[in-house]
Amino acid sequence: MAKEDTCEVLIAGGGPCGLMLAIELGRRGVDTCLVDEKPDTAFNPQANATQARTMEYYRRLGFAAEVRFAGLPSDYPTDIAYFTRFATYELARFRLPSARQAHSRATPLASGWSAAELPHRISQKYVERILRKHAEAAGAAINFGWRLIDFTDSGDGVEAAVEAVDGSACRRVRAAYLVGADGPRSFVRNRLGLRYTGATGIARDFMGGRMYAIYLRCPHFYEVASHPRAWMHVTYNRDRRAFMAAVDGSGEFAFHTQLRDHEDESLITNSDAHTMFERAVGRPIRAELLSRCSWTAGHSLVAEHFGRGRALLAGDAAHLFTPAGGLGYNTAVEDAVNLGWKLAHVVKGNAPATLLDSYEIERQALARRNTAYARALADSLAYMPAPITLEDATKEGEEARRDAGRHLHAHARKEFSIPGITLGGRYDDSPIVVSDGTSPPPDAMNQYEATACPGGRPPHVWLAEDVSLFDRFGLDWTLLRLGPCAPDATPFRTVAAAFGLKLRIVAVPGHTVRDLYERDLVLIRPDQMVAWRGDSADAADVVLAKATGRTNALGDSD
Length: 558
Ligand SMILES: Cc1cc2nc3c(=O)[nH]c(=O)nc-3n(C[C@H](O)[C@H](O)[C@H](O)COP(=O)(O)OP(=O)(O)OC[C@H]3O[C@@H](n4cnc5c(N)ncnc54)[C@H](O)[C@@H]3O)c2cc1C
Description:
Elements: E1 6-12, H1 16-27, E2 32-36, E3 49-50, H2 52-60, H3 64-68, E4 80-83, E5 90-94, H4 99-105, E6 120-121, H5 124-137, E7 141-144, E8 146-153, E9 158-164, E10 170-180, H6 187-192, E11 196-199, E12 209-217, H7 221-224, E13 232-235, E14 242-246, E15 252-258, H8 270-281, E16 288-297, E17 300-303, E18 307-308, E19 311-313, E20 319-320, H9 328-347, H10 357-382, H11 395-416, H12 419-423, E21 462-464, E22 467-468, H13 469-472, E23 477-482, H14 490-499, E24 503-508, H15 511-517, E25 521-524, E26 530-534, H16 540-547
Parallel strand pairs: 1-2, 1-10, 2-7, 4-13, 10-19, 23-24
Antiparallel strand pairs: 3-6, 4-5, 8-9, 9-10, 11-17, 12-15, 12-16, 13-14, 14-15, 17-20, 18-19, 21-22, 23-25, 25-26
Helix pairs in contact: 1-5, 1-9, 9-10
Bound molecules: flavin-adenine dinucleotide.
Flavin-adenine dinucleotide is lined by residues 12-18, 35-38, 46-49, 124, 147-148, 181-183, 187, 256, 295, 315-316, 323, 326-330, 332.
């Protein structure tokens, strides 16, 4: 391990959640140590969809473009295409832009998209490498090959034991806080005695039950399945349903298929796995199997608490999704962004430990919302048995394929265009949000309505070609002074200085942003959520005290 014995925050788990948290903490000068039992970042790609909100967070840290241009070639289309089998009938196609098109489309000229970043299709393995690089650059000690094996919370700190996976060493680490970003089987969650609650064991024709993942190299795929290129390929037939994401655009794929009830994954041979893939293709094809494993779809689970005392949970350790909609990793990254600034404020003495109570209140509600949306999306795709004639070269077969195509196209629009889910998440019941008595628009999966109503994401505005209002926000707090008559911000500046908070004041004198935000002053949190809005700075002390957990919901001092 690079650092010894003490740190301010110890993170168990170097998946996207742990690595993003290490960046958030490291950038704020928090002495952070991360351990992960794998030898390096993930080899076996899982997530393939990075949502616009996550891209926005990467942009805030300065590496969105790096993520945008990693993975698939920049001109590779990111279509979602449905087939009876990959090389036979194409049923439906939902067209989505390549990385290059996405980069140029989210500009002031693009109509109707309310963010500086569009979603991005990229294997998690590329994202994790980039996150690791930036976590190290932020000063966090990143230790792959080390496992957390024990910890105790003494009330004023956490004493943990970590061991080298090769058995060569064992160390004790003392930290102010421990974060278990250690995935679905979380050692930290289990050790705290916290259960997942919600639905599990949901059986569906597809995406419900045991799934088999085969990571493979198959450059011939594009000749054998000669349809236009797609990022996500989905089969729909009566035999065995499957989905497969293009990983590098030149022959690497992540293939996932549903196991039948009687199939025992421990008995599946390389030859069996190859047959599963070949049957999904529908033509003879050679492929090199790089790795394979089973996993379970059909979870919709949220931990009963997101931590206890000085040990906190984030990412899959705190919630587990069925991958429909591509929300697990994205929700995990948001956890890290939410927790990062709060932990940094607490360990640096800029906010009381009670600020951390808001982490569970805000993120648990969000996790319940997002797991429910993912479940609805999986239901929409799964409860649809294929008709007998679907693969027949007959008139009936043609009709069945046309009907299936209509349903699948409608489904694709529902699953792969979800700004309502990804940009519309809110913290309305949070004790650190200062309500102004207004109500937000209704929550909807596929529609996002921009609003500066406190508790949600601030509305996006382009200020100039390629300059987003969000680009002007600070890493920590931002006070927007909007319109030609915005009041003096001195009270906020004075209180922030007294609390030790970094506050950036951003003036936007024109009417456009003022009209959209509906107030002269708007306080933006470090995680780019609206904490408060108003027309006078007189209550700056009350507002900042509440937003940093110094006062409870009634405004009384704790
Ligand atoms: C097939 C599939 C497709 C998916 N597609 C998407 C998608 O498109 N979009 C999306 O948002 N999500 C998707 N997901 C979900 C996504 O992969 C996960 O939600 C995401 O990896 C969670 O990140 P995490 O950092 O919380 O946990 P993980 O990625 O599980 O990382 C946890 C880390 O903790 C480490 N660890 C565990 N125990 C210890 C210990 N005791 N000590 C040290 N280290 C430990 C592990 O080695 C691991 O690296 C998909 C999942 C699957 C299965």
